[in-house]
Give the backbone structure.
Amino acid sequence: METTEFVTVFQNFGFPIALVIVLLGAMGWIAKKAWEYVKKRDDEAVRLRDQFIAYLQQNHVELTGAILENATAAKENATALKENAAALNRFAMMVEKFEKYLKTEK
């Protein structure tokens, strides 16, 4: 409102009524500004939430890939350990045979 509108309100109505009208107008203006601020903060919160969800989804994909790679590597490691155990068993059998051979040669 302009100054002339305030003066007109005070001229047309008594002081208490004019004061109430001006205060209601000020409260309306404050409420409008508060609503705009809340709406702006809400939009920003939604934007940040969406960014965070996208970030979590991307990390989920990356972590799933890393877990899959680790599982594959663990499987290959288990196979290699099994082969090593078999080789050690064969070597132990050869050492045992060699030991028996050396004992019979004496």
Remarks:
- Residues 49 and 74 are 36 Å apart (CA to CA).
- DSSP finds two helices and no strands in the chain.
- The two ends are 121 Å apart (CA to CA).
